[in-house]
Amino acid sequence: MRAVRFHERSGSDALTVEEVDEPSPAPGQILVDVEAAGVNRVDAVFAEGGFSEVYPHSRLQPPRLPHIPGSDFAGTVEAVGDGVRRFDVGDRVFGAGLGAKFPGTYAEKVAAPVSNVAHLPDGVSFESGAAIGHAGVTAWHSLVHHADVEPGDYCLVHGGSGGVGHVAVQLAAALGSRVVATAGSAEAREVIRELGAVDALDYAQSHDDLRESILDATEGGVDVILDYHLDDYFELDIEVSNLNGQVVVVEGGETGIDHQHLRLALWKDLTIQAAGMFNIPDMSAALTRLGRLLEDESLTVEIDRRFDLDEASEAQKAVENESYVGKLVIVP
Ligand SMILES: NC(=O)c1ccc[n+]([C@@H]2O[C@H](COP(=O)([O-])OP(=O)(O)OC[C@H]3O[C@@H](n4cnc5c(N)ncnc54)[C@H](OP(=O)(O)O)[C@@H]3O)[C@@H](O)[C@H]2O)c1
């Protein structure tokens, strides 16, 4: 089969398409004929060495080389391993969380543990299934599992036009919260409003102006914040939070946080929670729920562009360097 691989940990430039042996499903795994693969920032991190080099205390070890990248996929089950009861040959499926411990999805076929897979409803395209995985599970893990968003809550999503952000906006709105999100362009802010945000704000304004805009838009305070620029926004998050507010962090940046921030947070009894989707032992329940939300159109996933397998390096660099709304997918 054709697959994208890297032989050295030197980032997105190292991705090449090669002819490799087809995987065979181990016990508890299924073999999937891949129709589409989602592209994520994390795939670039793994191509640079995996979390254990970028974050030395992570549990994730760098993948053995050569390695196939790619977290997300959708396709059709071609074979099932021993002990698999939930899936049959021919089922439409989608999944997430590969490309770290397991070989990834930038390939014509992938072997996936059933804990990382759900059935793809008939009305949902393979591309949508492939695009939702990593972003959707992260948004779910953050807003439902960690923050337990309630109807009526004010929810702030920093960067609401990104892969995670645009799903988080819709999920928080579907849960009944009033969502305010930020984005860098007027077009992206328009899309965010169409996706259900009560307001969309320009993140490029000064922090003082942004704080005032958030407080105006939220009747004076936010209950739940999803942050992936903690180095930029932690102080702002504390300032705009309501008493007993929650800040869920999915990425932190490298500098700018010190113990004084926790000292400030105690005045509001804030809960600060770090969420890592690769720590979820079984993603299938969240994936199943996301699939149903896609099916009944409570959730859409914006697909900005499609790439061939040969263009994986270009796709990966676009995720790292370009601005667009939603997700990119590779179609093998
Ligand atoms: N912890 C986890 O398990 C987990 C899982 C998934 C993702 N993540 C992390 O979460 C982050 C988002 O992932 P993603 O897949 O959604 O990435 P993405 O699709 O590239 O989205 C990034 C978003 O950040 C916005 N942005 C850039 N600079 C900003 C700023 N100064 N203030 C506010 N927003 C800003 C971008 O908006 P513009 O395009 O308008 O600049 C874009 O909407 C990444 O850092 C990723 O590593 C963590």
UniProtKB/TrEMBL annotation:
Keywords: NADP
rRNA processing is among the record's keywords: no
Keyword Nucleus: no
Domain Enoyl reductase (ER), chain residue ranges per copy: 11-330
Pfam families documented for this protein: ADH_N, ADH_zinc_N
One GO-annotated biological process of the protein: small molecule metabolic process
CDD domains reported for this sequence: zeta_crystallin
Molecular-function GO terms, alphabetical: adenyl nucleotide binding; anion binding; oxidoreductase activity, acting on the CH-OH group of donors, NAD or NADP as acceptor
The protein's name: NADPH:quinone reductase
Organism: Natrarchaeobius chitinivorans
